[in-house]
Amino acid sequence: MTTMDNNAHPLFEPELLDRCISCGFCLPACPTYRLTGEETSSPRGRITLMRALQDGTLEPDDPTLREQSSFCLGCRACEPVCPAGVQYGQLLERWRVHQWRGRRRPLLVRLLTRAAAQRRAIQLAGWLRRAARRPAARGPADAPHLMLGCFERVLFPRVSTAARSLAPELAAPASQGCCGALHAHNGELAEGERLARRLGEALPGRIVTTSGGCAAHLAGVLGRDRVMELSEYLDGRTLTGAGSASVAGGRTAALGEVLVNGRRARVALQDSCHLRNGLGVWREPRQLLRAVADYVELPDAGSCCGAAGTYSLLRPKDSRRVLAPKLDQIEAAGIDYLVVVNPGCQRQLITALRRRRSRVRVLHLAELLSLARVRTG
Prior knowledge:
Elements: H1 14-18, H2 31-36, H3 43-55, H4 63-71, H5 78-81, H6 88-99, H7 107-116, H8 119-128, E1 145-146, H9 151-155, H10 157-166, H11 181-184, H12 189-202, E2 207-209, H13 212-222, E3 227-229, H14 230-234, E4 259-260, E5 263-264, E6 266-270, H15 273-279, H16 283-292, E7 294-295, H17 311-314, H18 316-332, E8 337-340, H19 343-355, E9 361-364, H20 365-371
Parallel strand pairs: 1-2, 2-3, 6-7, 6-8, 8-9
Antiparallel strand pairs: 4-5
């Protein structure tokens, strides 16, 4: 028996599953395969499980299906190395719609997605936390807007205020809601897409985000032309470096240097998985950082930190196993700041480095660049 409604509505689009040629290029890129060495914990192995679910070889409630749909980080590191162009992220989202249906969805996930959908509560929390807010002024319909996020404006309100200090032209209406990425990644794909479209209507024109995961989700629903991550928006608009000036119509802040004890700060970057693997954005934040500080490339900067949205909350032990080698690299690099471009990564790394009593400070890219902002007059 196949997992379909009268064979008319397959769980997975056949062309998505058929694209995988089982070459194995994805295996060394996969964090969970590196942890276990087990085929079922690799993208190739999981696609084999999806095929078995689709054609009825495995029962829908098979424990291996439940475990592997949850054990996967969803980092999409397999996608850039895949010669066949498998859209693994799309497959995983559909898999979790099935595996986490109804009461099978973890209680914590249900609570978080419900909280993220409470637009008025998020607006109030952002106001109390003093996140950025600036109503859209009358002007061109395609004027850029800053997406404030749901949990980011509560947990890290300084990120949005720092972003607006760098690009004051960005409107940031406080009434905006969740983009739906949390829902789409956790078994509520239709709701995630609905929230993304609603946000697209609330923020006309270009949407600038400070969250790599949100950027990838929005781009998938609204189109790549509607969405820019902050580093993309700033890169090429600002001439950075000591004594430089703005080129964005006189509106984007000029940047100097970030100093620590009179010297240029040493900084490293932790990539956002979805930003790097889903949208191909990784050069831009590095270019901005090199302009204002001494940049140090960590060996595994492009690999997942284990945050992975709700993963660090649902599977904390596995999350820490993924993160542990990265923490050693951070300490060995002799850096002053570790820069992130995603709030989940920020929470994960702040918590882990505090636990180690590390002196490395974790900042969002917007916060680090705001330290280099040239104050004039």
